[in-house]
Specification:
single chain; D-Maltodextrin-Binding Protein, domain 2; alpha/beta; 42% helix; elongated; 3 domains; two-stranded antiparallel ribbon; Arc Repressor Mutant, subunit A
Length: 303
């Protein structure tokens, strides 16, 4: 009867999910050489080849596919045991939340200190970037995304709608005048927006929704950089109201026009019930309830 080492099985599972020993080693925080040695030991004990080595990485063999199903079942059982311990000892471990740059830095940060204080045994990674980490690939425990995933081993639910409007600085409007309608932006105005080929979500292509054919003259993949450019008088741009209304020197332009977008909470279906993940989801829902007026200020009259 084989007495397999669980660490060897964890190594196998990590490589199967990552597709490369280097990526798996980074995820497990071990040396790639150590990971390779564990794989070879597991293959020797089972007397089968679990991976084919290719130029791009490791590809599961038929025997590897069969073992993967069993290893995933064992991993789920291990997580259930960990979860039971977490319930009795309180929320602990590491919680990684992936959010868009603006939502993370301009909205969530004001609430994160209280959440951390309420769970002193929990380490929180707030990955607020121009792009998302993937819950389906276990890169994050929770992602707050701009669209609902259509496939993958994930579950999603609506977090909140939020409003966006056109903004400019007082200095810019004094120099160039205020447009009466979005179509006026195409005549004599400078626009700030995203770099088209660096847009990480199609929902960020919103200039065209205010008036067909509008193109930015100054572009950045960073919404925070765009907000600073607009505040410094570089041009007119679209910002979420939770950024534009809270940025000094900015004023809403064409206030009778706005657009809506939606935030979605996305988690992996195998980890959604972990104590730390449940706590993170509850916290996000409480954040949007508390900050509802910032996310969705009253719709302008005659909109």
């Amino acid at each position: 009867m084989l007495d397999l080492n669980w660490n060897d099985l964890r190594a196998f599972l990590a490589v199967a999910q990552a597709g490369q020993i280097a990526r798996a080693a980074s995820a497990l925080k071990v040396d790639p050489t150590t990971l390779g040695r564990r794989l070879r030991r597991l293959e020797s004990e089972l007397e089968v080849a679990l991976f084919e080595r290719t130029r791009d990485g490791q590809v599961l063999t038929e025997a590897g596919e069969a073992l993967l199903e069993k290893a995933e079942t064992m991993a789920r059982a291990a997580r259930a045991i960990t979860e039971s311990a977490a319930i009795s000892s309180g929320v602990s471990g590491n919680l990684r939340i992936s959010v868009s740059e603006g939502f993370g830095t301009q909205f969530l940060t004001r609430y994160l200190g209280a959440f951390s204080a309420a769970h002193p045994a929990l380490t929180v990674d707030l990955a607020a970037n121009s792009g998302y980490l993937s819950p389906s690939k276990r890169e994050a425990d929770i992602a707050v995304m701009l669209s609902r995933p259509k496939a993958g081993p994930v579950l999603s639910r609506k977090l909140s709608d939020y409003r966006l409007q056109l903004y400019a600085s007082h200095a810019y409007l004094a120099r160039y005048g205020a447009p009466r309608e979005p179509r006026d932006l195409a005549r004599g105005h400078h626009l700030v927006g995203y770099v088209p080929d660096l847009v990480y979500a199609p929902e960020l292509n919103y200039l065209d929704e205010f008036h067909t054919g509008l193109e930015a003259h100054i572009r950045s993949p960073s919404i925070n950089a765009q907000a600073r450019l607009i505040a410094e008088g570089a041009g007119i741009g679209v910002l979420p109201c939770f950024i534009g209304d809270m940025t000094e020197h900015l004023v809403s332009v064409c206030p009778n026009r706005s657009i809506l977008r939606t935030f979605w909470i996305v988690t992996h279906r195998d980890t959604q019930n972990l104590a730390r993940v449940r706590a993170g989801k509850d916290w996000l829902l409480e954040c949007v309830r508390t900050g509802h007026a910032r996310l969705l200020p009253p719709e302008p009259e005659n909109a």
